[in-house]
Amino acid sequence: FKGGDTCEYLLSSGRFLGEKVWQPHSCMMHKYKNSEAKNCLIDKHIVFIGDSRIRQLFYSFIKLINPQVKEEGIKHGNIPFEDKSASIKVDFLWYPEVNGSMRQRIKSWTEGSVAKPHIIVVGAATWSIKIHNGSNEALAQYKINITSIAPLLEKLAISSDVYWVLQDPVYEDMLSENRKMITNEKIDAYNEAAVHILNSSSRNSKAKVKVFSVSKLIAQETIMKSSDGLHLPESSRDTNAMILMNVYCNKIMKPIDGSCCQPQPPLTLIQKIAFCFFTLSIIGYLIISLIHRNNYRKNKSCTDLESGEEKKPAISTPNVSTLEMLLHCFCKLGLIMTYFYLCDRANLFMKENKFYTHSSFFIPIVYILVLGVFYTENTKETKVLNREQTDEWKGWMQLVILIYHISGASTFLPVYMHIRVLVAAYLFQTGYGHFSYFWIKGDFGVYRVCQVLFRLNFLVVVLCIVMDRPYQFYYFVPLVTVWFIIIYVTLAIWPQIVQKKANGNCIWHFGLLLKLICLLTCIYFLSYSQGAFEKIFSFWPLSKCFELNGNVYEWWFRWKLDRYVVFHGMLFAFIYLALQKRQMISEGKGDPLFSNRVSSVLLFISIVSFLTYSIWASSCKNKTECNELHPSVSVVQILAFILIRNIPGYVRSVYSSFFAWFGKISLEV
């Protein structure tokens, strides 16, 4: 990326991804919701001046604030709009020609103490072509009028945002007889005149009128879908309104997926400290490495000329070597973080919005599946959910989730619903793994807790510091951290029930089940009591960890989405370990998990359940409704997968080392 103002690129260049998604050159465009638009434009006054095409843009713009607005205003007259809840005023002023009347209106804002609009959008030409039958005299007059208006617009541009909208091309075959004189050749001549005059005038001015020329590019692709050959189809003018919103609001709202018109954020104090720390680590490592090499050369074994014996070199002290290893690790981490920062937070590289196509998601899925099958090996042990199998499971899930995020597949509901099951499956393993550890080992020491919390959070804490992001931004790590603490507290509080104690007396099994029922009751209560949940996580310092955009709603939504699956994982671990202890399952190499008949029935039920869930998820029509059902039913496909993967002995005895490798770094991925 050669640099330059991304605002200029947003206003002047881009291309379509598919049929409706506009991609500006080199930067990402945020899709504003009406709540975000209101927050950005609060207490603002916006004015649109021009003809029917500008009126179209006006309506698309106010629909971003209030989607319920209907296009019912006077066609050839002024149209006011006001949103009292946010004190936003948007006016359309009917001035179809660039003439003395338009000049007078613009001049009125430059004089005295009249309140100036915060945003002014101006554009007109087709009426001048139509009324004067495309004469050259009309074009000459148009140049004179713009020349007189340009200084006034530049004066306004000192305190307001002023945009001159270039004329869109027309679809000449569809124009009615009274518009046949409006040709693309004439429109190009008027646009050239406007650009030349505004650019010439701005060279001597402190402020610049921004030329909104991107609308012309959009129209070239979509004007064929116009109803009359002159006015843009609704999707195109909505794109123009969204571009206008990005130009003004991105620097105010700073959306994560809107890099256009957003300056590079200044480094915070904590980022500067992190930068200094990593720099000193690199310098320290280089110095220590040079000293060690120098000592190695000096102490290199040499032959004693008198005795002919070899002298051994002096051995370095362990402390120095540990320090060198630590600095080496910090060097690597520093280089990785620098790469992340340059990609994500600096304007060094061009950025593009994600655009989903079926091929961009499914082709990589097939590719990694083939690779995974190619690297099949025998497992060291054949227990249900053995270490190699769980690593493999986490590995392929994380690769699928990675492809899902890169390809922007969340817009395709069937894929979204299946990915939700993968996230739930990861949390299921959290419940299964931690419960199994505490139940078998009975180790509730502080060392174990600190070890797990450090392993889960170290990378994310460093990312939060380097990238200047809140902890909740990387929501999955807070999620698994909180669930680990919940599992620990549930099992560690009196009475501590572990396998060794329960084996001596079966009554302890009922005690543990009672604990799990209490946990389920608490989860159920919190999931239906948003107020209670928000109160718990709104206390300092928890609020600092779990707030996003000033509230904990996002955290509540994420927690609620998979609220039961960790409990399901714990319950599954309890039942499985109980069956294993009583030798009710066969885990020998090549042996089916149960008797042949039971195994066949369970395998059939599992396959049917797995496919039934997939059919339901694929036929989902409403994301909100499906998300409501997901926490209760996701366990069906997870359990079905576990049984399909473990009931046949030959399937349980093999694993993919390719997927297992990624599984070992699944949290980082």
UniProtKB/TrEMBL annotation:
Protein EC: 2.3.1.45
Leader peptide range in chain numbering: none
Keyword Methyltransferase attributed: no
Gene Ontology cellular component terms for the protein in this record: Golgi membrane
Start and end residues of each NXPE C-terminal domain: 22-72
Cellular compartment(s): Golgi apparatus membrane
Annotated TM spans: 269-291, 325-343, 355-375, 396-417, 452-468, 474-494, 506-526, 561-579, 600-617
GO BP annotation list: carbohydrate metabolic process
GO molecular function, one term: N-acetylneuraminate 9-O-acetyltransferase activity
Keywords recorded for this protein, A-Z: Acyltransferase, Glycoprotein, Golgi apparatus, Membrane, Transferase, Transmembrane, Transmembrane helix
Membrane topology: Multi-pass membrane protein
Superkingdom classification of source: Eukaryota
Cas1p 10 TM acyl transferase domain: residues covered: 253-669
Major subcellular location class: Golgi
Reactions that this protein is recorded to catalyse: CMP-N-acetyl-beta-neuraminate + acetyl-CoA = CMP-N-acetyl-7-O-acetyl-beta-neuraminate + CoA; a ganglioside GD3 (d18:1(4E)) + acetyl-CoA = a ganglioside Ac-O-7-GD3(d18:1(4E)) + CoA; CMP-N-acetyl-beta-neuraminate + acetyl-CoA = CMP-N-acetyl-9-O-acetyl-beta-neuraminate + CoA
PANTHER family per the UniProt record, alphabetical: N-ACETYLNEURAMINATE 9-O-ACETYLTRANSFERASE (PTHR13533:SF1)
Family: Belongs to the PC-esterase family. CASD1 subfamily.
Name of the featured protein: N-acetylneuraminate (7)9-O-acetyltransferase
Biological source species: Menura novaehollandiae (superb lyrebird)
